[in-house]
């Protein structure tokens, strides 16, 4: 009986420590590939900066900027031209508890896409999902896929530090 009691107490303390780690502010950086859903596009490599706040309940908010670090390329009228994109988004987020957790986010996005000398910008809805791993008391790593707009996704790895 004593072993069962210790096991139950250890389980409860484990859940409480995971919950404590999940509340608070954080900042981080992401790197990944911007996947354009167009034929012949060599996709750009993007980097992102994010900050946010999450509650013990798992709900939170996040702001993220993503921009092209290495331009992609596409052929337009027989010439290779650069493809770049940047975006700024605000998200409502939800994370499950635990050392390995799942994360979802839904938000509003401003994005600007440049192909050669032409560019266009737009506002829209963005959504993403991923899996995260606690690395210590104040850091974590997440693998995510975010739909930046209907034709562009961002597959990324992100490191965050909690404060």
What can you see in these coordinates?
Strands 1-2-3-5-6-7-8-9 form an eight-stranded antiparallel beta barrel. The protein has a single domain (2-162), classed as Porin (Beta Barrel), CATH 2.40.160.20. The N and C termini lie far apart (40 Å). It has one helix and nine strands. The model is unreliable at 4-21 (pLDDT under 50). Helix content is 13%, strand content 69%. The radius of gyration is 19 Å and the shape is elongated. It is mainly beta and 163 residues long.
Question: What order do the helices and strands come in, and which of them pair?
Answer:
Layout: H1 2-22, E1 24-36, E2 45-54, E3 59-70, E4 72-76, E5 79-95, E6 100-115, E7 118-134, E8 139-149, E9 152-162
Antiparallel strand pairs: 1-2, 1-9, 2-3, 3-5, 4-5, 5-6, 6-7, 7-8, 8-9
Mean pLDDT value:
88
| CATH topology-level name | Porin
Distance linking N and C termini: 40 Å
Classify the oligomer: single chain
Q: Any low-confidence stretches, pLDDT <50, length ≥5?
A: 4-21
The geometry reads as elongated
Question: In the CATH hierarchy, what is the class?
Answer: Mainly Beta
Largest sheet: 8 strands, antiparallel, barrel
Provide the CATH architecture.
Beta Barrel
Assign a percent range to the helix content. 10-25%
**What value does the Rg take, in angstroms?**
19 Å
The number of helices is 1
Please write the string of helix (H) and strand (E) elements. Answer: HEEEEEEEEE
Strand order of the largest sheet: 1-2-3-5-6-7-8-9
Class per helix and strand makeup: mainly beta
Strand content: over 45%
How many structural domains in the coordinates? 1
DSSP strand tally: 9
């Amino acid at each position: 009986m004593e072993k069962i009691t210790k096991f139950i107490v250890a389980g409860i303390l484990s859940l409480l420590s995971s919950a404590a780690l999940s509340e608070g502010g954080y900042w981080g950086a992401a790197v990944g590939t911007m996947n354009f859903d167009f034929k012949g596009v060599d996709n750009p490599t993007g980097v992102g900066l994010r900050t946010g706040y999450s509650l013990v309940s798992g709900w939170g908010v996040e702001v993220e900027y993503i921009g092209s670090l290495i331009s992609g390329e596409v052929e337009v009228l027989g010439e290779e031209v650069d493809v770049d994109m940047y975006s700024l988004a605000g998200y409502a987020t939800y994370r499950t508890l635990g050392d390995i957790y799942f994360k979802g986010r839904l938000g509003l996005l401003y994005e600007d896409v440049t192909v050669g000398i032409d560019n266009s910008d737009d506002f829209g809805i963005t959504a993403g999902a991923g899996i995260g791993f606690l690395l210590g008391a104040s850091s974590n790593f997440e693998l995510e896929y975010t739909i930046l707009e209907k034709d562009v996704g961002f597959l990324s790895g992100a490191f965050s530090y909690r404060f």
